[in-house]
């Protein structure tokens, strides 16, 4: 299948003033990543400026120079860009930095940003900037909304041009680690660590390495039983440890660039240390010891909860489970273990508080996990630009110490001075022609990478960059798409789930409104609505979840007056007549936001329609179709939610709009 180049589709712009003299590139050292950087520059300069750039061994005759220079402040991944006396120079201590610097120069050409004689320095904020694919070996993708996998098909590994183009896209926004297979490792995927797949993995890993990306795999904790015929996977048993040690030695001999492993254990039916009465630290450390000789990392997920709950039980709280399971283990994990924590305590809802595991662990490496596959945020049929949400998460103060206590500080290593930390996103790509199904969903892929690389960029700056790189320089196009992106998350929130309560979706596939879809089920996800009110009591008198935060956060959430209103129903049960700060009652707020949200969805569709003729027809029509669907679907959401709560509360809408 053919595919497009997303934000690397360079637009010809021959009026651009080229800031360097001559048409030669010089590099003072060569390696495969530098070669890739030079090729990228050649391609971009040719396509944007129409200029063929040759290569020279003579520094004096070069217009663009890539130079390796000892500079500990920049490190292997940071870079400097400077344009003086007709020479554009990119400097870094490492090949990766030179690649990132080259992509930055390309972005400057794309966005017409001026090259300056002043040094422009950048160093990635998060040490690990990772994508997690939930791709299965049969080619399907768990929670995939843009076609099938481009890594797997019929239990085979695909390595081809698309692998390279994927790596180019990822590297262009600074991604340095990719987990290619689903965290639910079953069937054939368990065999990914076996010899049978190592040749293909080797080829894939080499392509990734060229673009500065380390290959990671998800593994099955029960592999010693499934592959090795052992009768146990007990992490404290010597035979099991030996099996893993041997396995890792074998793997790393063939795949020296393997970054390590991502593990989902004791979660949603996956095997783990609990079976043997062992802790998650026992499990993670066993694997960590096995990969340590090869500098491997074990990224251990904290998405551990009871998925067999009785809905009548009001004390067990899924939101509590991450902290309850992991907090007691603080300090017990090896240095090469990183705990990967979802942004919120539940599961990628449109609005959740920040997980109290951030700031709750003082001696443990942590990594933030977000989801740009829009499982609960419109499944890439609705527009939902998520970077503003991620930024809120990053800015959240945990009060784990006096300063440098935000989630950002923790995952960028400022809090503990560590480097085994970072940010991962469950990625939204598939083998669709445009990679992400919805063309506008590519802003989340691009934006995620840019944000991890430079957490001080604003969501708006990132969106602007993406729009220009993708759609070019037309003012009206830029302004309207920017408006759509920037409003999209809040709009989606308005017509879906109110005030932080979440989950009002159809079970299993998680698309479309269903207020009671998860209500009387075993998953621990309840809104607790009755005829008087709704919300979950998570304070001291309820599940006690609010107490997992440090002060002053714990008190802020505990008190209904100080609890941020967008999370009101997450933390408190309140009557429908409860008055919000706007003066509106809770029920009126639900009606109003749902009407508003549906109107905004219609407005976004109109905005797009008005761009007809200014955007390539194929792309225009693709997006138009999805926006038309979103507009209709938003009305369905509005009506389902409003009718449900109108009938339950019997309180009419003050504005007398149609509620069925
Ligand atoms: O939200 C849930 C998803 C599952 C997913 C799980 C997880 C990969 O619905 O599909 O499994 O989260 O994060 O492990």
Automatic annotation (TrEMBL):
Pfam family for this entry, one: Glyco_hydro_67N
Domain Glycosyl hydrolase family 67 C-terminal as annotated: residue spans: 436-657
Top enzyme class: hydrolase
Coiled coil feature spans: none
Superkingdom: Bacteria
Keyword Cell inner membrane attached: no
Substrates-to-products reaction catalysed: Hydrolysis of (1->2)-alpha-D-(4-O-methyl)glucuronosyl links in the main chain of hardwood xylans
Start and end residues of each Alpha glucuronidase N-terminal domain: 7-104
EC number: 3.2.1.131
Keyword Ubl conjugation: no
Annotated ranges, domain Glycosyl hydrolase family 67 catalytic: 109-435
Keywords carried by this UniProt record: Carbohydrate metabolism, Glycosidase, Hydrolase, Polysaccharide degradation, Xylan degradation
Record family assignment: Belongs to the glycosyl hydrolase 67 family.
Subunit structure: Homodimer.
The protein's name: Xylan alpha-1,2-glucuronidase
């Amino acid at each position: 299948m053919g595919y497009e180049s997303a934000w690397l589709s360079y637009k010809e712009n021959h009026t651009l003033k080229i800031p360097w003299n001559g048409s030669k590139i010089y590099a003072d050292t060569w390696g495969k990543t530098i070669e890739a950087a030079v090729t990228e520059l050649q391609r971009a300069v040719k396509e944007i400026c129409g200029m063929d750039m040759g290569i020279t061994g003579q520094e004096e005759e070069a217009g663009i120079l890539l130079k390796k220079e000892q500079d500990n402040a920049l490190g292997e991944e940071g870079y400097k860009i400077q344009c003086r006396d007709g020479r554009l120079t990119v400097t870094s201590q490492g090949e990766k930095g030179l690649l990132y610097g080259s992509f930055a120069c390309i972005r400057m050409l794309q966005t017409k940003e001026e090259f300056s004689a002043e040094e422009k320095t950048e160093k990635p904020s998060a040490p690990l900037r990772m994508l997690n694919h939930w791709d299965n070996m049969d080619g399907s993708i768990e929670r995939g909304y843009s076609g099938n996998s481009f890594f797997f098909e019929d239990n085979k590994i695909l390595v081809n041009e698309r692998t390279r183009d994927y790596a180019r896209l990822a590297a262009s926004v600074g991604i340095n680690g990719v987990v290619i297979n689903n965290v639910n490792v079953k069937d054939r995927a368990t065999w990914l660590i076996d010899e049978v797949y190592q040749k293909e993995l080797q080829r894939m890993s080499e392509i990734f390495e060229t673009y500065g990306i380390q290959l990671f795999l998800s593994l099955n904790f029960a592999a010693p039983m499934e592959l090795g015929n052992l009768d146990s996977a007990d992490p404290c048993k010597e035979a099991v440890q030996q099996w893993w040690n041997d396995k890792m030695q074998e793997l790393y001999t063939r795949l020296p660039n393997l970054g390590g492993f991502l593990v989902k254990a004791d979660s949603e039916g996956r095997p783990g240390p609990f079976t043997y009465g062992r802790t998650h630290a026992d499990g993670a450390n066993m694997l960590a010891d096995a990969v340590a000789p090869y500098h491997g990392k074990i990224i251990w997920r904290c998405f551990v909860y009871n998925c067999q709950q009785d809905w009548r039980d009001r004390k067990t709280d899924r939101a509590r489970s991450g902290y309850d399971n992991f907090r007691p283990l603080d300090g017990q994990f090896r240095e090469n273990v990183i705990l990967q924590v979802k942004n919120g305590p539940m599961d990628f809802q449109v609005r959740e508080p920040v997980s109290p595991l951030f700031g709750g662990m003082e001696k443990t490496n942590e990594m933030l996990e977000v989801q740009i596959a829009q499982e609960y945020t419109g499944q890439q049929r609705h527009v939902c630009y998520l970077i503003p949400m991620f930024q809120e998460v990053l800015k959240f103060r945990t009060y784990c110490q006096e300063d440098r206590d935000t989630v950002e500080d923790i995952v960028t290593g400022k809090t503990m001075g560590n480097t085994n930390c970072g940010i991962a996103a469950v990625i939204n790509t598939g083998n669709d022609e445009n990679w992400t199904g919805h063309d506008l969903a590519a802003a989340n892929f691009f934006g995620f990478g840019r944000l991890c690389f430079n957490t001080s960029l604003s969501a708006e700056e990132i969106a602007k960059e993406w729009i220009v790189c993708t759609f070019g320089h037309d003012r009206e196009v830029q302004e309207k798409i920017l408006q759509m992106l920037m409003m999209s998350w809040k709009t989606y929130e308005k017509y879906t789930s109110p005030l932080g309560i979440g989950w009002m979706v159809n079970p299993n596939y998680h698309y479309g409104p269903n207020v009671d879809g998860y209500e009387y089920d075993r998953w621990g996800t309840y809104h607790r609505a009755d005829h008087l009110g709704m919300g979950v009591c998570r304070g001291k008198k309820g599940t006690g979840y609010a107490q997992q935060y440090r002060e002053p956060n714990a008190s802020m959430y505990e008190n209904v007056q100080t609890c941020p209103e967008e999370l009101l129903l997450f933390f408190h049960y309140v009557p429908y007549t409860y008055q919000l700060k706007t003066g509106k009652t809770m029920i009126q707020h639900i009606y109003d936001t749902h009407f508003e949200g549906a109107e905004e969805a219609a407005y976004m569709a109109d905005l797009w329609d008005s761009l007809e003729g200014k955007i390539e027809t194929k792309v225009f029509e693709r997006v138009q179709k999805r926006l038309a669907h979103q507009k209709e679907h938003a009305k369905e959401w509005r009506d389902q939610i409003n009718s449900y709560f109108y009938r339950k509360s019997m309180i009419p809408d003050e504005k007398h709009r149609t509620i069925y």
